[in-house]
Structures are given as C-alpha cells and as structure tokens.
Amino acid sequence: MPFKEVLGFDYITISEAREILEKIVEKRREKAEILYETRKTLKYLRTFSKLPADKAKELVEELLKLPQLYGKKELAVKIADLMPRIPDEVRIIYAKERYTLSEEQIREILEVVNKYRI
What we know:
This protein is 61% helix and 0% strand.
C-alpha cells in the first residue's frame, strides 16, 4: 500500500482552512458527489471561522510582531481562531506555556485582536 509523503507543514487559521476546502469542494462538485465527512468539515469551518481568510492571515502576521508571540505561530493562529475578548481567554491559550504573560502583554494582544473584530 503506497503512503503519501508530507512535503511541508504550516499552521493555518480556521478561516484559511475554510477557504481552501471551499475551493476543493467547488472543483469536486463538477465530477462527483461531496463526501459526508467533507460536508461536515465544511459546515464546522463555516460555523467557527470568525474572519475572512485574508484578514485572519493579516491578524496572525501582526500578532507575530509582538514580542510575547515572536516565533510562536501556533499561538498566534490559535488567538486568531478564538478571537479572545477578555484577559482570561488569553491566559487560557497560554496555559500550557512555561511562562505567564503580564497584564500589559495581554492588553497588547487584545488591542491587536480588537482591531480585526467584525
């Protein structure tokens, strides 16, 4: 049985995943019926994506410029997916990290997120 090889890996937001899957579904719709799993996944992505894909990508890039997120793309993507509103939501995202954020650092993150809130 042949195995597929992973050529690359990158963290993407739910919004970006939704956009990619919508393009795939449009191509496949012409040839065959869409699988149940694909339909359920697309429904999930549409339900939980909070920004357009381009805005989500911009948000991640801006978050990565903050010193507390520098080089931590997985955290920036998680923040963009969840769009936290209060400091406790940011603390929950950082719960598994080896350090805690100061109130000022949390406030900086929330200010950046609020610029992109719809």
